[in-house]
Structures are given as structure tokens and as C-alpha cells.
Amino acid sequence: MRLAARFFSVLLAVFATLWLATAATAKPPLVLAAASLQESLNAAADAWAAKHHERPVLSFASSSALAKQIDAGAPADLFISADEPWMDDVQKNGFLAPGTRISFLGNTLVLVAPAASKGMVAIRAGFPLAQALGDGKLSMADPVSVPAGKYGKASLTALGVWPSVKDKVVRGDSVRAALAFVERGEAPYGIVYATDALSSKAVRIVGVFPSSSHPPITYPIARLAASTSQEAEGFRLFLISAQGRAIFRHYGFLPHRPQAL
Amino acid sequence: MSFEIDVRRRMGPETEIALRFTAGAGLTALFGPSGVGKTSVLAMVAGLLRPDAGHVRVAGETLFDAARGTNVPIARRTAGYVFQDARLFPHFSVRGNLRYGMRRAARPGMSLDEMAAFLGIAALLDRWPRTLSGGEAQRVAIGRALLSGPRFLLMDEPLASLDLTRRGEVMGLIERVRDELGLPILYVSHDRREVDRLAATVVEMG
Amino acid sequence: MLLSPDEWQIVRLSLRVSGVAVALTLPIAFGLAYLLARGKFPGKILIDALVHLPLVLPPVVTGWLLLIGFGLRGPIGSRLHDWFGLTLIFRWTGAALAAGIMALPLMVRAMRLSIEAVDRRLEGAARTLGASGWRVFWTITVPLALPGVLAGVVLGFARSIGEFGATITFVSNIPGETETLPIAIYAALQVPGSNAIVTRLALISVVLSLGALVISEMLSRRAGAGRGGHVL
Known about the structure:
The complex is a heterotrimer.
Chain A: H1 2-24, E1 30-34, H2 38-50, E2 57-61, H3 63-71, E3 78-80, H4 84-92, E4 102-106, E5 109-114, H5 129-133, E6 138-141, H6 147-158, H7 162-165, E7 169-172, H8 175-183, E8 189-193, H9 194-199, E9 203-208, E10 218-223, H10 232-240, H11 242-250, E11 254-255
Chain B: E1 3-10, E2 16-23, E3 27-31, H1 38-46, E4 53-58, E5 61-65, E6 70-71, E7 79-82, H2 94-99, H3 112-119, H4 134-146, E8 152-156, H5 164-181, E9 185-189, H6 192-198, E10 201-204
Parallel strand pairs in B: 3-9, 3-10, 7-8, 8-9
Antiparallel strand pairs in B: 1-2, 1-4, 4-5, 5-6
Helix pairs in contact in B: 4-5
Chain C: H1 5-38, H2 44-56, H3 59-70, H4 75-84, H5 92-116, H6 120-128, H7 133-161, H8 165-170, H9 181-188, H10 195-225
Helix pairs in contact in C: 1-5, 1-7, 2-5, 5-7, 6-7, 7-10, 9-10
């Protein structure tokens, strides 16, 4: 009995110390970011930390999943989406800190194939993607909700190819999930961002979707109303600064091109 | 000789069974107190247990011989085994139970209905074992064993769990089986009165 | 109409995938259950542990193992494709494989218990009446183990209807091919204004699972009560 009592009081003391310890430290900002920003945002966070700040905590997923989490009240500090509609959704529901939303990156949509494959695919109106796929599947992010999938579907629709391939589509949770199936060689083709293709040695770009065939790809960033970290705004300003954008350019992101009004 | 039995088997770290006897025609009783191994001997004659040494010969046929490596499989020993607890198949009706061993019966012998009449269970044929009384179940068990074309019968305390009236009924039945069918019977009991009334030969154990 | 045509397709696909999964897993599960219930051999504990592995491994890991093994480039998947023209990845057959593997441990457990509960003395009695090993198996062992076996089948069906992690990792989400009920709910959750759809699909999921559990429980009780039917 005495041994049990001693054991539990030690356990309690340990928990109490940990609890107080975590409460006491300043919280680094929690950033919810689109999956395609994995490498580039990590590099930016490292650069920020090198300037003697707490390294931000990064959480990557499809923009749609992140928006749903924010709408459900997720306590995060920054949100970077891969398209405007999901940022609109979060803003409409009142979760953004006013005046902090700005679009700062662009990207290109590409067709990829496993690294060991041969040949290129000329992407133009009516191009024979269905034939090229044959029995295989087209690996895309979910065209219903994930930005990369929506851009892909828009592009294929504009080119008149969507009806012939829509039953061959494997819907990934995120653009990275779509990339993974092509990397493994399980799908002969996939639609991802140029930045994703560049970050992977297991795929090669076989075609580029004309930017006129889909809405401009833009990445808006904003601070959330629920933000509690004092470093959040500072990190956001860093990301949209010239130094921040240079890091992203290094990974293949395009500068943001404002939509013609 | 109906039975030539010489068996030995280690049953546990402390216990061993050893029994040797020969017996002629009619009913041979294995008599002794509970726990002495009578049921195990019966099981060895049936082939459900394998002796460590010795031989088992019934009605001229060698069923087991350790020295010569003979061990006839259970299914081929053509024994009619009546268990102490009847052991009817719960998922077959009485008729189904009776019929179970009939495909082995070499010669036609009695038909199912004749056997049912002989044993007084004609009214029970479509009943389920779960609904039978102890005496009824035991009679079905005897019928099932008899209908399988046995060359000899093994009975393990068939009257043990019956009340007095039933005991009388079934004992009368066993006497008729003994007298009218002429099969060698090896009968296990711890009850002196049963043994005195039924047995031509008594083998004492323990 | 309670559900839209698309939603009915999802339910039908789920039922088909789970039905095939359980039907094909049944003989394997029974064989393993029999082996574990009656067999004495070295390595039995290992077999037992392997059978239970899908129960405790994170489903995503199981899905990943299926991916690297049965994908077009996996050692088994490539041979299946080259020799038999059979593809599992991105097909409903792959979804059935994932569902079957996840259901296996539950089915084996239930079946093993029911086989162990079969009174071996009844089997002995059948032997004395002249029945061969196979006849004893089919006329005594299987019928007496049947209620427990069926309970296991229904339980396995319920588990495979709800299978998500391994399925989405191995065969992903393809409407009409691999979009089973749980995957459809998961995908619908990502879309705004989907509460109505999610509620309907989730309700069906609950009804199917609850129904299967109730049936399984009833069968288990029958298995326990009807056993032996002792006379004395």
C-alpha cells in the first residue's frame, strides 16, 4: 500500500511539473498550410528560427481539410490556402483577423509520370489522355474539394478531355497523396503542381497545363482571429517579405499574379 | 472366446491401468468401484484410447496388438458403444440418431421401425434428444448402437443415471438384447445387483 | 427516395465489397480456426499472433503493407497482373482484399471458440458408429460449430463494412469502384454544405453495423444454448 502511494505521488509530481512547464513557455505560432508548401515552408520556418525566433509549428494537409478544421474552431494562428475559395470560406465564417489576408504565391499545374517512364505528352485541346492511360489510373487530388484537383478538373474540362478520363481518376486526399501514387509507379500519370514535381526524384514532368485553361493558381495567407501567439504576425510578414518570397521562388513557386479585374 | 483382453496404460503421473482377462459368450461384466478405470478399459476396446502395451481380441478378430503394431481404427471395429450419458447427437432427431450408423450395417438385420418397436421408442422417432427423459434417451442410445451392425456391444453403466422404474425397464431391455441377439457384450457397472442379474462372467477390477 | 442514385451506388458497392470479402475469407478463417483449436504443432503461438496482427496494427500500416506487396509494382501484385491479368490496386477487388484481411482476426476468434466448444465425445461416439474422419467433420463438427461460425461471419461483415484506413491507403477513393461507405463519408466531410449527405450515409452505416452486431449476438447465444442438448 505504501509503495503504491509513493508511486502515485511521484507520478503526480511529474505530471504537475510537465503541465506547468508547457504552460509557462511562449507558444510558437501554429501554421495550417496547403500540402504543396511542405518543403518550402519548412525552409522558411528554419530561416525565421535562425533569426532567433521560436520555430513555428507547421501542419500540412489539403486546403479543404484545413478550412473545415478552422471552421470547426481549430486554434491555429496562420492559414495558407492553395486557392482563394477556401480562404473565402473561412473569411465568410468570420475566422480571419481583418486586414491580414494577402495572396503572395503562384504555381503551375503539370502532368507527371514515374521517373522511369519515357515520352512526353503535348497538352492541348482534345489531347488523347484516356488512350495514354489505357488500363491505368490518373492520380489527382480530389477534384471536388482539393485545390489541385479543382484546378486539374477545370483544366481538363476546358481542354475537352475531362469526360473521357473522369472514370479513371484516383482521388487523393491531397496533392501529395496524388504525387505518391505516381512516385510508386502504381499510376502511369498524375496531375500535381510543378513545385511538387520538382521536389520529388521519383517523378518527371511530361506536360504542362496552359495557365489559361484553369483559374490562376494563387496562395493566399491570413492570420486567424483565434490566433494567440505573439510571433504569428511577425512570421506572416516575414513570409510575404522579399526575403520570404525568395525562399519560395527557390522551390519553384511563381510570384503571385493579381487577377485582371 | 468372445473377449481376450490384456491391456496396460499409464493414465497420469501416479496412475496406471492394467487388466487381463478372457471371457466366453454372453454378457461379461467389468465390476469395480468408481474411478478404477473400467470406462478406460471400455474405451481401449472401442479404440477411443490406445493402450501402451498388450492386445485386444474380440470374437476372434484382433483389434489391437502392440507387439505386431496392429491398431484397427475406431470406425472399423464395428463395436456398438452405449455411453453412460447416452451421447445422442443434439442436432439430429431420434430417427436421425438411430439412422446414423446404419450405413455400416453389413447385413440387413432389423429395420429401423422394427428396432424402434423392439425398444419401445416408436412414438419418439420425430422427437429431439433435448426433449427426451433419461430412460428414453438411453433406449435410443441402445437402438443407435444396435442399428450400426455391431459385432459386439460395449455398455458403460447404462443404468447409472436412471431412477428405479426406468432402471427396471431398461434392464429388461438389455436382457432381451442379450438373449435374442446373441452378441458378445462387455458391460461396465459398479452395482452388484445389476451384475448378478445380467452377467454370465464377472471380471473384478480394483 | 431516401437516397440519391449516387448514394445508393455507394451502399451497393460497400455491400458488394464486404460480401465478397467475407465469402472469400470464410474458408481461410475456418481453416485457421480449426488449426488453432485442434492442432498441436510448433509455432502455433506465432500463427495465432499473425492472425491477430491486423486487429492491433494501425490500419494505415496494413494498407501500406498491401500497397507495397499487392500494388502493380509489388512482388505479389506484379505476378498476379502478369500471370492472371488480375489487378487489385485501385479496384474494388483490392478493397475486398483489405476488408477481408481486417475482418479475418474477428472471424477466426469467433470460429475458434465455437469449434473448441464442440463436444469431442460426440465426435468419438460418431466414430464408434463407423463414421470416417470426413463424415464426422461434416455431420458432427461443422453443424455443431455452425451458429458460432455464422456469428463470426456476421461480425466479420460488420467490420469490413466499416473498414477505412487500410482501404483508403491501398485503393484510395474512386467513385463507383472503391468509394465505400466510410470513404464516401470521409470525402463528403471535406466539402462545404455536406451535412445532409454525411448524416444520411452515417445513419446507414450505423444501421448496418448495429443490425450486424445484433444478429451476431443472437447467433452467439444460439450457439451457446443449443449446445449438447443434454438428456440426463
